[in-house]
């Protein structure tokens, strides 16, 4: 039977003073320091480390077992807590899978042996939504849910009634790698576990975070419970089972209720996956209007499905006005209007309201013909043309009908915390005759954020302009969400990107100037010193409300993305700050980097379930890598900027052949011959280094990354297509996306191949798919 309470059973009357005792045990090797358990309840200190439960060593010191007893009120359905290791440095458990114990069904005065294992973030990253919702979960569809483990709350679990001499054993199994439609079961040596029979396996329930719970009643005479875990597909066949058995000892005098932490031991012990880096703006399709659009991501997801790739990494997609740099955001929430597909907006109102949109459709088709032949992105023209056609759709449908749409109203209500301020900001931006320029702030504007409600009021003279802003953002939201859900359904995750800062002329700074140091600029040391122009974060002010601005930002992103990259993650530890009025810069803080990074990153980590990746290139302080490892944040390795030994990369990292801030491999080979020759001599070592390079060199570079030890390898689309001679661009110099320190020609790249045509390249796509299989990228079991 499943370990859940009968929903129809009458509630058991409880004594308000009744308690049960949790007898905690955890094994952790530590010389000097202590282990504590903390959680939101009073018994666990109310999340205050100073009042946390302190564990003591149990038995011989060399066994590294720690224990404590905690009395908890029986009226609680479940108790949440987590372990913290306090030594020279403080180490935390992964917060992706909250630890909890259900006490429902226990008699008053009971004691539960809670046998835990430390949940290291390094391994629990596979429970992030990148995997649970997309790569493994494939959108968690109702159809797949029919054959998956029943999803329940921890409080729904219930202990069984026990007879004389019986013990209830509850297994908490971490099994992250379970494909959509599959389920986790357990069999073992006791009667309740089927006496090893595959036909009598014990079912389990899923309590979220890829934690599965099974429960069995055994006689105390059964001193050793042995069991194996298995994954069953939607046809009822075992597709994966552990090789070795787990053993659980029930010693004389053990309590009648035991919980045991277990991790599924997969025959293929290490999971690795691969993806493609491709900015939305750079996608070219048959229907492109001079720039890639959100809906084009669906075709990229189709291509990933054909090739065995499982992640699409994009650049920031927030509104930056006419500034082509995606890192010059004028809002941390609003999406860039250039990524909307007007013909899809017309289709929305045609199907939903029965309006004749044939004129708009013809107009949109003519824009494709007019703009799609451009080799580079003409931002001003694309933005202008799209604004005209979106205004025309708005005028044709009419403001009243747009506002009356239930879907629009639902979105507007959910987005109210940011979209009203953003719309007021956009209206006021025009009035101030200003522009999105990172060197200036909004402090001299004639209206401040306090007048937002007056600007967006339906009585305002600007109300029509405000609704037009809402209208565009609503359809951008719908189209990005559609692309994201489609990618999920194919087992493909979308990885977003967070710029390290926002511009001075942004809705964020206008709304909450106290969160930014407006008298300083961010930058980097050097000769010459780099001045990036945007204000540093005021972390002290941000922590006053628990970094609410960050949490709102990440929860907003969570609806579209499954992973995200933090641009210049070093800025969470320290930032090179330059006085705005001139003078040399300095690092702030100059010490205590571990504490600063840990505090800032932990504050935002709990805001979403997305996988976090940090761009940790450049002059990296010694304190950074341990903190990223401890928090389960993947770093970045660019082969030419490190020793290049992909087989020695840390597991928690993204291995990449190149990135948007450097030349693709083929261009690097031609521009930096010394580096290319050094790479060839070290990794090939036969004959003379060839020019070009030939496609087999490109193939070797990508395959090295696939064979490497990193959890993720995400390579630019340019490096993938360069593996196939006939698909290469005519001029590798045109494949560059950005040259740091330069502005001319940056951020205007468009892929020379249409994604529609790439989907038809069966031999090439099959070649990549075979490479993924040979290197075990994306192999679940």
The level of helicity is 25-40%
Sum up the overall morphology in one term. globular
Q: In angstroms, what is the radius of gyration?
A: 28 Å
Counted by DSSP, the helix tally is 23
Average pLDDT level: 94
Strand order of the largest sheet: 4-5-1-9-19-11-15-14-10
Strand content: 15-25%
Strands, total number? 31
Biggest β-sheet strands, sense, barrel: 9 strands, mixed
Question: What is the end-to-end distance?
Answer: 27 Å
Structural class: alpha/beta
Q: Ranges with pLDDT <50 over ≥5 residues?
A: none
Give a brief rundown of this model.
The protein is α/β, with parallel strands linked by helices. 29% of the residues lie in helices and 20% in strands.
Overview features:
nine-stranded mixed beta sheet; eight-stranded parallel beta sheet; 20% strand; 23 helices; alpha/beta; 781 residues
Structural write-up:
With 781 residues, this protein is an alpha/beta fold. Helices cover 29% and strands 20% of the residues. It has 23 helices and 31 strands. The chain has a nine-stranded mixed β-sheet with strand order 4-5-1-9-19-11-15-14-10, with no helix packed on it. β20, α4 (297-307) and β21 (311-313) form a beta-alpha-beta unit. α18 (665-671) packs across α19 (673-683). The two termini are 27 Å apart. The mean pLDDT is 94.
């Amino acid at each position: 039977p499943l370990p859940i309470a009968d929903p129809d059973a009458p509630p058991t009357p409880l004594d308000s003073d009744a308690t049960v005792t949790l007898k905690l045990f955890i094994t952790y090797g530590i010389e000097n320091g202590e282990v504590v358990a903390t959680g939101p309840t009073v018994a666990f200190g109310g999340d205050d480390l100073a009042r946390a439960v302190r564990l003591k060593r149990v038995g011989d010191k060399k066994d590294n077992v720690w224990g404590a007893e905690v009395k908890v009120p029986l009226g609680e359905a479940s108790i949440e807590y987590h372990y913290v290791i306090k030594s020279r440095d403080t180490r935390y458990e992964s917060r992706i899978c909250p630890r909890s114990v259900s006490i429902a069904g226990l008699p008053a005065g009971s004691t539960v042996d809670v046998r835990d294992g430390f949940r290291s973030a390094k391994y629990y990253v596979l429970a992030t939504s990148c995997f649970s919702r997309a790569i493994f979960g494939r959108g968690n569809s109702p159809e797949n849910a029919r054959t998956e483990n029943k999803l329940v709350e921890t409080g729904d679990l219930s202990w069984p009634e026990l007879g004389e001499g019986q013990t209830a054993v509850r297994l908490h199994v971490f099994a992250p790698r379970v494909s959509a439609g599959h389920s986790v079961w357990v069999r073992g040596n006791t009667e309740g576990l089927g006496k090893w029979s595959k036909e009598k396996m014990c079912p389990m329930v899923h309590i979220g975070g890829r934690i599965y719970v099974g429960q069995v009643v055994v006689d105390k005479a059964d001193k050793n419970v042995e069991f194996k875990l298995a994954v069953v597909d939607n046809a009822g066949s075992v597709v994966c089972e552990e090789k070795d058995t787990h053993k659980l000892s029930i010693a004389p005098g053990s309590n009648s209720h035991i919980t045991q932490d277990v991790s599924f031991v997969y025959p293929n012990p290490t999971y690795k996956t691969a993806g493609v880096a491709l900015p939305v703006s750079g996608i070219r399709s048959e229907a492109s209007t001079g720039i890639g659009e959100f809906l084009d991501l669906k075709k990229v997801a189709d291509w990933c499905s054909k090739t065995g790739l499982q992640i699409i990494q994009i650049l920031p997609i927030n509104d930056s006005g006419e500034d082509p740099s995606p890192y010059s955001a004028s809002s941390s929430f609003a999406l860039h209007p250039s990524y909307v597909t007007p013909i899809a907006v017309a289709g929305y109102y045609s199907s939903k309201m029965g309006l004749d949109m044939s004129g708009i459709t013809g107009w949109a088709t003519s824009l494709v013909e007019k703009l799609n032949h451009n080799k580079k992105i003409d931002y001003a023209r694309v933005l202008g043309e799209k604004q005209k056609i979106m205004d025309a759709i708005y005028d044709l449908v009419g403001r009243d009908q747009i506002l009356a749409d239930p879907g629009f109203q639902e979105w507007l209500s959910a987005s109210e915390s940011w979209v009203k301020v953003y719309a007021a900001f956009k209206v006021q931006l025009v009035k101030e005759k200003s522009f999105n320029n990172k060197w200036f702030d909004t402090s001299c504007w004639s209206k401040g954020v306090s007048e937002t409600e007056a600007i967006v009021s339906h009585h305002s003279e600007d109300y029509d302009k405000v609704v037009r802003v809402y209208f565009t953002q609503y359809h951008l939201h719908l189209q990005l969400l559609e692309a994201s859900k489609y990618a999920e359904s194919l087992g493909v995750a979308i990885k977003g990107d967070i710029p390290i800062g926002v511009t001075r002329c942004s809705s964020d700074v206008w709304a909450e100037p106290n969160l930014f140091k407006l008298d300083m600029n961010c930058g980097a040391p050097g000769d010459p010193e780099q001045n990036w122009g945007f204000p540093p974060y005021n972390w002290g002010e941000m922590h006053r409300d628990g970094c609410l601005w960050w949490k709102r930002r990440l929860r907003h992103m969570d609806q579209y993305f499954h992973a995200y990259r933090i641009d210049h993650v070093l800025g969470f530890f320290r930032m090179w700050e330059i006085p705005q009025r001139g003078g040399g810069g300095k690092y702030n803080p100059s010490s205590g980097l571990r504490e600063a990074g840990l505090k800032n990153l932990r504050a935002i980590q709990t805001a979403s379930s997305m996988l976090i990746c940090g761009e940790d290139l450049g002059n990296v302080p010694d304190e950074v890598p341990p903190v990223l490892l401890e928090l389960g944040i993947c770093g970045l390795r660019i082969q030419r900027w490190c020793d290049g030994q992909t087989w020695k990369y840390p597991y928690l990292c993204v291995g990449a052949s190149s990135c948007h801030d450097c030349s693709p491999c083929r261009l690097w080979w031609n521009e930096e011959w010394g580096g290319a020759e050094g790479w060839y001599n070290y990794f090939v070592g036969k004959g003379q280094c060839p020019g070009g390079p030939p496609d087999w060199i490109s193939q070797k570079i990508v395959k090295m990354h696939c064979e490497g030890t990193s959890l993720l390898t995400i390579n630019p689309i340019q490096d993938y297509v360069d593996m196939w001679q006939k698909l290469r661009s005519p001029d590798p110099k045109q494949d560059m996306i950005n040259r740091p320190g330069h502005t001319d020609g940056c951020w205007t790249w468009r892929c020379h191949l249409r994604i529609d045509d790439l989907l038809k390249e069966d031999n090439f796509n099959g070649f990549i798919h075979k490479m993924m299989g040979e290197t075990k990228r994306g192999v679940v079991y």
